[in-house]
Design a protein that fits this description.
- This protein has 177 residues and is of the alpha+beta class.
- The protein has one domain.
- It has two helices and four strands, in the order ααββββ.
- The protein has a four-stranded antiparallel sheet with strand order 1-2-3-4, with helices on one face.
- β3 and β4 form a beta hairpin.
């Protein structure tokens, strides 16, 4: 049986290339869906952060005659809620929107801690419940591509603890820095 060829059970280079092309094509076709799903997940995580900030604000107000922190900048805002002596907010990561890629700071380094939310100072627990008290940080009066969630909207926390998604930036005097 010297003249017979043995059949190979391996894969040819052509077959391998076809499989790689098919997988690449599927990956490219699914890319926009994956990006949208990721953005929805980041938006939900961001809204959850605002709910945790609401809990910290209400704990603070309970100890301060119903007043939320009266601050002039975001470092003071974080400091009033995440002070190691009071710990209204136990985790500094709640001040970071997952869509920005910022890293949370250490408790002793709050001055260098990025804060991805803006805050409306001077409100109280008995303020009208539909007043916004915190929201995703925006750079200007309207939404831009450089904001936490780009042009896709903004999460807003209200005095009563509700978090809603808006497509416009609510009016008011916001502390952004």
């Amino acid at each position: 049986m010297r003249g017979m060829r043995r059949e190979s059970s391996g894969v040819t280079l052509t077959e391998l290339l076809v499989v790689i092309l098919i997988i690449t094509g599927c990956g490219l076709a699914l890319g926009p869906f994956v990006r949208k799903a990721r953005e929805r997940a980041y938006t939900a995580a961001c809204a959850n952060n605002l709910r945790k900030i609401s809990l910290a604000l209400h704990k603070y107000a309970k100890d301060h005659d119903g007043a939320f922190p009266a601050v002039s900048n975001l470092t003071e805002f974080v400091g009033s809620l995440a002070d190691p002596n009071t710990l209204y907010a136990e985790d500094l990561s709640i001040f970071i929107c997952p869509n920005t890629g910022h890293k949370k700071a250490f408790p002793g380094d709050m001055a260098n801690s990025p804060v991805d939310y803006m805050y409306s100072s001077g409100l109280r627990v008995d303020s009208p419940p539909n007043l916004p008290i915190a929201a995703d940080k925006v750079k200007g009066p309207g939404l831009t591509k450089g904001d936490n969630h780009g042009l896709n909207g903004i999460n807003v926390l209200y005095v009563n603890g509700d978090v809603k998604r808006l497509t416009v930036v609510p009016g008011g005097e916001w502390i952004k820095e």
